[in-house]
Amino acid sequence: MVSSTLTQEDRAGAERSPAHAMERLIAVVQELSLARTLEAVQEIVRRSARQLTGADGATFVLRDGQQCFYADEDAIAPLWKGQRFPMQACVSGWVMGHGERVVIGDVFADDRVPADVYRPTFVRSMVMVPVRPASPIGAIGAYWAHQHAASEREVELLAALANSTSIALENVQVYAELEARVAARTAALADTNAELRRVQADKQRITDMIVHDLQNPVAGISAMLQILRRQLAHEPAAADDAMVERALRSCGELSEMIRGVLQASQAERGQLVAIVEEVELEAVVRDAVEAFREAARQGEHELVLTLAVKARVRTDPRFMRRIVQNLVRNALRHTPEGTRVEVTMMRGPEGIALSVSDDGPGVAPSLQAAIFEPFGAAALHGRGSVDTGLGLPTSRALARALGGELTITSDGVRGTTLTLTIPEGHIAGRIG
Fold it and tell me: What is the set of domains in the chain, with CATH numbers?
C-alpha cells in the first residue's frame, strides 16, 4: 500500500504528548486483539506503525525460513512489498537473527544496510524492531525520507506495537488451527455412528495408555521423595544421593514422554515445520549418540558409532538430533543387557543412510508397519516399560518433514535395524 503522506491529524498525533501516544497504542492493541486473519494484522500494523511514529513509510516483514518476506507496507513511495531477501542481506534479517532493535540515522553510513537496495528508495533513516525478541517471527520497520534521529519514545512505541503484533499472530494461528480441527473433526464424525464409536474408542485407548505410562515415573518420584523426606527429618547426613539421581532420571523420562506426545500430536495435525540450514551431519549424529553413553554403560550395552562418510546436509538440526535420539533410545530399551547397539552412517544407493541396529528379539514382518503407528510399539512390547509407543512414529514424521524416510529391517527372530535415508538432493557438500 502506498500513500502520499500522513494526514495532518496523523502527523500531529505522532508529535503529541506521551498520554496521547499511549491512547493511540491502546486502541491499536484492541484492534489487533480482534484480528482473525494475517491480512487483518498486516493492515493494522502497516497503518499504525506510521501513525505512532510519524514516519514516511512502514513495512511489515515475516520470517520465511532463511529469508525475509516483505509482506506489506504503507509509504510515500513503493519499497519492497512482496519481495524476499536472504536473512544476511537485509536489516530486517539482522534484527530477526539477533532479536534486537536497530536505530539508523543515516542508512548510507551503516554497514548493516545494503546500500544498493536502499539507493532507489526515499529512505534515509530508519528504525527496525523484532516481532517477538525471543525467536523472532518477523520485524516492523519505520522509515523517514530525511535524516531523522528517532526518539526513545518512537522506538518504544514501535517495539510495543511489535509485541502486540506477536500476540495477534499467535492468536491468528490458534484461531485457524481451531477452525481447521473443528472442521476436520466435524467431517469425520459426520460419516457414521460407527466411525464416531471408533474415534471415541481410540481416544479412550490412547488416554488409558498415556495415563498408565505416566504413572510409572510419577509413582517412582513420589516414593523416592517420601523416603528422602523421612531421611532428612531424622538424619540429614544419611540422605541418599543415588535416590536423588533416580528421581531426576524419572523426571527426565516424564519430560521425554510429554515431549513425545506433543510432537506426535503436531505430526498428526501436519504442523511439524522444519527450519532448514546447512549442518555438519556427523557432528549432529555424534552429539546425539554420545548423550546415551552413560545409559548404555548402565545397561551393559556396547554402543558403537561408525561414521563412514562426512557430509554437509540441508536439514533441521533439532529434528535430526531428535530422530537419532529416538532410534538409539529405542534400541537400548529393547535389546538385552550385554549386547551391541551400533549406529552407522554411510553412503547408500539413494543418498546417506543412517542406521541404528540392535540385537533385540526382532519384529515380525507382519507387525513392522505397526511400530510406525502411534502407540503401536507400546502395544507390541507391552505396558509398564516407559514406552509410549510415540518415538518411532514421531521419528518417521520428522524424517518425512526433512524430505527423508525411515524404514525397518528385521527377520522377526533376532535383531532390528532402523534406517534413516537422506536423499542426494539434501546433501550440500562433502567434507571428507
Answer: 8-176 (3.30.450.40), 192-268 (1.10.287.130), 277-430 (3.30.565.10)
Grid cell locating 110: 551503516
Identify whether the C-beta of residue 9 lies closer than 8 Å to the C-beta of residue 51. no
214-218, 375-379, 380-384: which has the minimum mean pLDDT?
380-384
Residue 253: its pLDDT value, please?
62
Q: Which residues pair with 430 in a beta bridge?
A: 311
Q: What is the pLDDT of residue 380?
A: 52
Place of cell 539482522: 94
| Rounded Cα gap, residues 329 and 319, in angstroms | 15
Question: Within a 10 A sphere around the Cβ of 45, how many other Cβ atoms?
Answer: 29
Q: What is the mean pLDDT of the chain?
A: 79
Q: What's 302's DSSP letter? A: E
Q: What number of other Cβ atoms are within 10 A of residue 43's Cβ?
A: 17
Sheet with strand 84-86: strands edge to edge: 84-86, 67-75, 57-64, 138-144, 125-131, 102-104
Q: Which range scores top for mean pLDDT: 38-52, 115-129, 214-228, 254-268?
A: 115-129
First to last CA, the chain: 51
Interhelix angle 391-401/317-333, rounded to 10 degrees, is: 150
Given a cut of 70, whether residue 350 has pLDDT beyond it is yes
Radius of gyration of the chain (CA): 27
**Across 43-49, average pLDDT:** 89
